[in-house]
Amino acid sequence: MKGRGMFEICPVCFWEDDGQDDHDADVVRGGPNRTLSLADARRNYLAVGAADPVDLPHVRVATSDEI
């Protein structure tokens, strides 16, 4: 793992870490996460298991240390 904001893609939810965090979670930044805000991605993950439903083929189940 490179660190926060280093554009790594989470293998569990497929969110690309662009540095967005709780303080601006409702902002749609565009870029690697397209039209999703972090808040939207979190809701999607809870509902369907991926930050964006179109990315479901790329996700995996979280391991016990990732929960």
Question: How would you characterize the overall build of this protein?
Answer:
- By secondary structure, this protein is mainly alpha-helical.
- Helices cover 16% and strands 0% of the residues.
- The chain is built from 1 helix and no strands.
- The radius of gyration is 11 Å and the shape is globular.
- The two termini are 17 Å apart.
- This is Cysteine-rich CPCC domain-containing protein.
Write the layout of secondary structure elements.
Layout: H1 38-48
Distance between the termini: 17 Å
Helices, by number, come to 1
Radius of gyration (Å): 11 Å
Would you count the extended β strands for me? 0
- Overall form: globular
Task: Write the element-wise H/E pattern from the N-terminal end onward.
Answer: H
Oligomer: single chain
- Category by helix and strand content: mainly alpha
- The amount of beta strand, in percent, is under 5%
**Low-pLDDT ranges:** none
Mean pLDDT: 94
- Main sheet makeup: none
Helix content: 10-25%
